[in-house]
Design brief:
By secondary structure, the protein is of the alpha/beta class. It contains 15 helices and 9 strands. The chain has a single domain, classed as TIM Barrel, CATH 3.20.20.140.
């Protein structure tokens, strides 16, 4: 039997109890990496650990000493597990089923092209494998995650061809935030939008407010993964508001990577008070030991967010969903019915 994750933080309610109102709401996941989201059972198939072992990142109040320590944990299993489209299928199936149990009905996730590069995996086959196991109850939008150095002569054709893969919904910029945005990224993000794909970028978690500005102005994105460091520069916050940029925030990840010293002082409060639209997400649930419900509960119990604010943060995900007007109307109607019953 698979061990259940320990709480990601001290809470009054066990994550398995349905008493908190958040458990009863339809929810979204807008920021999730498949490589950081597989199961403990799958991990134990490729890494020799004791039967009762769980990741150190699952411990209450744990913080990774350095970002390199966090990356080394991923590398310690990633290159062993994610070596075929079938492995992506198995991981995707497990996380999709878990998210349904958490009340998620709309989801945006990404896979890392760097893994395809390492193992020589065909991008289209990885995408097909992931999309083949999406449950009927879950609406999924899949993004291809690129690093700043993903473009090279060996990958040029694969990345060019990827823009015409029908099952692909968007692209996302992964990797160290302090790397400069090169010309190829600007060209590729522009080409992706011309091909009808949605574009995002990681910026402003461990980097600077200037990285958020660069992603908006150079890449033209209107969805920033994290973005919390924008609060360090009022002009960047104003830029977020001017362009209606949405920040997909992951509170537990931010705390455990030391981007926020604690939950009470998390920059989400400043962003919300400034009128910036934010969504709540888990980032890498296997690595950090959190569910989407945990993320909301920590905001309730340690960050001082009111019930009305939490409901709006949850609703924001559906408001920003990449779906038809008809689908969005249905999502919001279902959400409002569920929320009304809890007010």
């Amino acid at each position: 039997m698979q061990n259940k994750p320990a709480p990601a933080f001290p809470v009054d309610l066990e994550p398995s109890t349905p008493d908190h109102f958040i458990y009863k709401l339809p929810k979204t996941e807008m920021h999730l990496h498949l490589e950081g989201s597989f199961s403990l059972d799958q991990y134990k198939q490729v890494v020799d650990v004791p039967s009762d072992w769980t990741p150190e990142g699952w411990q209450p109040n744990y913080q990774y000493p350095t970002f390199d320590h966090f990356e080394q944990f991923i590398l310690g299993y990633g290159d062993k597990w994610f070596n075929s489209p079938q492995r992506y299928l198995e991981s995707a199936k497990a996380i999709f089923e878990a998210k349904l149990r958490e009340g998620v009905t709309y989801m945006e996730c990404s896979f890392g092209v760097i893994v395809c590069q390492i193992h020589g995996l065909p991008i289209d086959e990885v995408i097909d494998a992931i999309k083949s196991v999406v449950p009927a109850e879950l609406e999924l939008r899949l993004h291809m995650g690129l690093h700043h150095n993903s473009w090279n002569p060996e990958m040029e054709k694969a990345l060019t061809d990827a823009l015409s893969i029908k099952q692909l919904d968007g692209i996302d910029l992964h990797g160290p935030e302090d790397f400069p945005i090169q010309d190829w990224l600007v060209d590729y993000w522009t080409a992706a939008r011309s091909a009808g794909l949605h574009t995002k970028a990681h910026a402003g978690e461990l980097g600077k407010a200037a990285d958020v500005r660069e992603a908006i102005e150079k890449l033209g994105v209107r969805r920033i993964e994290h973005g919390l460091r924008a609060v360090d520069d009022p002009e960047v916050v104003a830029l977020l508001k001017e362009y209606n940029v949405v920040c997909d925030i992951c509170p537990v990840s931010n705390y455990k990577l030391k981007a926020s010293k604690d939950y009470a002082s998390h920059p989400l409060r400043q962003l919300v008070d400034a009128g910036i639209t934010c969504t709540i997400n888990t980032d890498d649930p296997f690595i950090f030991g959190s569910t989407i419900n945990d993320e909301f509960i920590v905001l309730d119990q340690q960050a001082g967010f009111s019930k009305a604010e939490l409901l709006q943060l949850a609703r924001n995900g559906f408001e920003q969903a990449m779906v038809t007007t008809e689908q969005k109307t249905k999502f919001l109607s279902d959400f409002d019915i569920a929320a009304k019953a809890l007010i």
